[in-house]
Design goal:
seven-stranded mixed beta sheet; alpha/beta; 7 strands; binds S-adenosylmethionine; Rossmann fold
């Protein structure tokens, strides 16, 4: 069983450099739907290196960022109130937040413990926002050379990691919970990456980051040798889910 709370720390710099940010249209949408004003206090849960935290700081009066991994946490903008903790035990009093945001993190949680914790720290009818950046054309998320796809496809069983999102077990965990039914919209998140950034993005994927060092470095070297173009197009879709506490 992989420990999701320390998996990303070994690639924190690559994560921060290579991973995409979040489109403002996705945040506009949930701000509107959940009627969140600039005075709102919000929680970024599983904040990573703070990509979403930064955007929340630009919109809301108070942002708390909870992240269990020290190396990831070290990169979160200092304007946020940063806490070393996990979703299953949030070190904040009840009724603290108008909304909780989970950017590419909710699929890693132990939902049995995390969902009641999220409900506890929210005000009545508080909002929950779940975001994922997904490749828009299958698993390949960029127009990289075929040899890169082949090298990545050789990886032993990347499916369990993918499966955490695609199984939708996280969505089932929210049925019969204190939350209303989830709403969903997909928002385009297109980007163009230099090869260094694309390589860092690949290095930060959980099924690559969790390989033994020798395998991981050999794979990245092989991929790097193939990335000879000045830039690559990477078209993603941001999957946006939101709901509110029923009471
Ligand atoms: C894919 S990263 C997403 C980071 C960030 N939210 C973003 O927008 O880029 C997933 C993060 O969730 C964190 N994480 C994993 N398990 C967690 C848990 N049980 N509670 C809170 N965070 C967790 C990881 O340490 C990692 O930083």
């Amino acid at each position: 069983m992989i420990d999701s709370t320390s998996l990303f720390g070994r690639v924190a710099a690559e994560y921060d450099f290579g991973r995409p940010s979040w489109p403002s249209a996705a945040l506009d949408l949930v701000e509107r739907e959940l009627q969140l004003g600039p005075e709102a206090s919000v929680l970024d849960l599983g904040a990573g290196t703070g990509k979403l935290t930064q955007l929340l700081l630009e919109r809301f009066a108070s942002v708390v960022a909870v992240e269990p991994d020290a190396a990831m946490r070290a990169l979160i903008p200092r304007e946020a109130h940063v806490l070393p903790a996990a979703a299953e035990q949030i070190p904040m009093p009840g009724d603290s937040f108008a909304a909780v945001f989970c950017g590419e993190s909710f699929h890693w949680f132990d939902w049995k413990a995390a969902i009641p914790e999220i409900a506890r720290v929210l005000v009545p009818h508080g909002g929950l926002v779940l975001l994922w950046n997904r490749p828009s054309g299958g698993l390949d998320s960029a127009d990289w050379p075929a040899a890169v796809g082949e090298a990545l496809n050789r990886l032993l069983d990347p499916i369990p990691h993918e499966h955490r999102y695609l199984s939708f077990a996280w969505r089932d965990a929210l049925t019969d919970s204190p939350f209303d039914e989830l709403s969903f919209e997909s928002v385009r998140n297109a980007g163009v990456l230099e090869p260094e950034r694309l390589l860092a993005r690949i290095a930060s994927w959980s099924h690559v980051a969790s390989l033994p060092d020798d395998e991981r470095l050999a794979l990245l070297e092989e991929v790097a040798a193939q990335l000879t173009a000045p830039r690559y197009r990477a078209t993603l879709e941001t999957h946006v889910y939101w709901t509110r506490l029923s009471t």
